[in-house]
Amino acid sequence: MAETKRIAILGGDGIGPEVVAEAEKVLKKTEELFGVQFETEHALFGGVAIDQKGTPLPEETLELCKSADAVLLGAVGGPKWDNNPKELRPETGLLGIRKQLGLFSNIRPAVIFDCLKEASTLKPEVLEGTDLIVVRELTGGIYFGEKFRRDTENGQEAVDTCAYNEKEVERIVRQACEVARKRRKKLTSVDKANVLETSRLWRETVNRIAADYQDVELEHVLVDNCAMQLLRRPASFDVIVTENMFGDILSDEAAMLTGSIGMLASASLGEGSLGLYEPVHGSAPDIAGQGVANPIATILSVALMYKLSFNWQEAGDVIENAVKKVLDAGHRTADIAVDKSKAVGTSKMGDLIVEAMVR
Ligand code: NAI
Ligand code: MG
Q: What is the pTM of this model?
């Protein structure tokens, strides 16, 4: 990695700052191991920003993120702000930052750590070797299409519209192809082309873009079949690319293969290399302030940052291997522990992973 990377750090609310603090230890250790230097800067975001600045996404936070190479985010939200009007809700900040940074894809890996197979509801032999990524389109489809209600002779009728244009499909498919190229080079495109016109355009576009990636093997799977195959043969998937609503559902399904929300990292990417990295879980108000949250999802999000925004595979692998080593040695936070009395806290888990990081 040649130039100094600038990382914006948004701790957010609840356990957000607790898990982000452990990820920062990992950033420091990377600097030591590789002789690099990160420029890190913290900013207010979410509920804490509402309290101090009167808005979930203050202008200076947005400016910092725009000038950064990557954004590391904890989580936002909590009961304190649940009844606020829309513009004073933490989630409004999340939607705002994604839009302002032009982030149109959400990337969620689901990796089975051998020693955690007991945490899943599926049989260990089905899960064996599972290591997949769901790439979900974030800005189009039925969630964003025109929606309204009208009166009919059968009572009220509600209408949601699903729309996709070629450009929206092209950019996400290209990105998924790039991700696949850095992995096992297998792309599964998921649609409902037997019924939906948007899916037929999706499939045509995928075929056209994939032609530029002859080294990536392509398959098309209908969404209902994909939902089944994820449970039947999860290890056969590498990269799954799909539209917004299908991706919302399939990424949650894939996440649960691993059995634990405290382990799951995510990335949101746009056209350039700037990405936003965060754990899949929320602010967990029920355990905030107790020092028991699992920091692994956030630490693995740093590994994703190295790989996807900094194109720095080696440093990402160092983190992933360290996490694996610590888990193999039997260390667990409470959420993944069978014997909760032996569980380690947030900070201890962070320290153990940092100690296990070697080149
Ligand atoms: P949550 O993910 O915060 O918590 C769900 C359950 O998982 C809780 O029992 C929690 O204690 C546990 N959990 C979550 N992360 C954990 C970790 N790292 N270690 C150990 N246990 C963990 O989801 P919930 O309760 O639905 O939402 C809480 C708040 O978070 C809400 O205000 C919600 O809006 C917000 N939220 C924010 C997200 C974000 O910032 N991207 C995403 C999801 C929810
Ligand atoms: Mg969801």
A: 0.92
